[in-house]
Write a structure and sequence with these properties.
With 209 residues, the chain is an alpha+beta fold. It is built from two helices and 13 strands; from the N terminus they run αβββββββαββββββ. The N and C termini lie far apart (62 Å).
């Protein structure tokens, strides 16, 4: 073999080694970037799902809805979200695969201090039901999204907490329960709330991953 051929082979091997090293560096950088994208949350019960302000078009009266998820099973969960996938661990360190078999939500429907929503473009409600009756006759359903599949659940129970229904009040508090069937923790949950006449008022979201 000539000296030129030896030099060519040596250069080819060096080039291959350089490309392999470059590839390993790229994979390391990608891996580090993906690792950096992960976010860790610690959950406490109740889990806030947000609030929304409304104005009844006919009466111009303001009210708001406030929702939270109240399952004790959410207390102390460690949720690690990544660019792809993630994990949910219990306080004992075991991996959680599904949501609780019964999901409990607390919904407050109130006019107390509702004026705080006046400056934030409250949602207009066309349902002209008497406001006390409206707050007493809300309807609920739970949508479960997983990929392209969506399932709708109806409440197993809706309980009024506190002031009895036959006593006029400016605030009503409910506990709404849904029976679930092994919903995976990567599913997205959406609590929808409707007026007595079927007008959709709001959507409140609950997601672990």
């Amino acid at each position: 073999m000539s000296q030129g051929q030896l030099l060519s082979n040596r250069c080819g091997k060096q080039r291959l080694s350089f490309l392999l090293l470059l590839g390993f560096c790229f994979l390391a950088v990608v891996g580090a970037a993906q690792e950096a994208q992960q976010t860790v949350f610690w959950y406490r019960s109740p889990v806030s799902m947000g609030s929304e302000g409304f104005k009844q078009s006919s009466t111009k009266r303001l009210f708001y809805l406030l929702a939270s998820a109240e399952n004790v099973e959410f207390q102390g969960l460690k949720v690690t979200r990544k660019s792809v996938g993630g994990t949910v661990l219990t306080p004992q360190g075991s991996q959680l695969a599904v949501y609780p078999s019964t999901l409990n939500f607390r919904v407050t429907a109130s006019t107390i201090d509702a004026q705080m929503f006046a400056g934030s473009s409250p949602i207009q409600v066309s349902d002209d039901t008497d406001l006390n009756a409206l707050l007493l006759s809300l309807h609920y359903r739970l949508k479960v999204y997983r990929g392209l599949k969506m399932t709708v659940l109806q409440p197993s129970s809706v309980k009024l907490i506190g002031i009895p229904a036959d006593t006029p009040a400016n605030e009503r508090i409910y506990r709404i329960s849904f029976n679930t069937d092994s919903i995976p923790v990567d599913a997205r949950l959406c609590l929808e709330i409707f007026s007595p006449k079927g007008e959709k008022l709001t959507r409140m979201h609950l997601e672990l991953l």
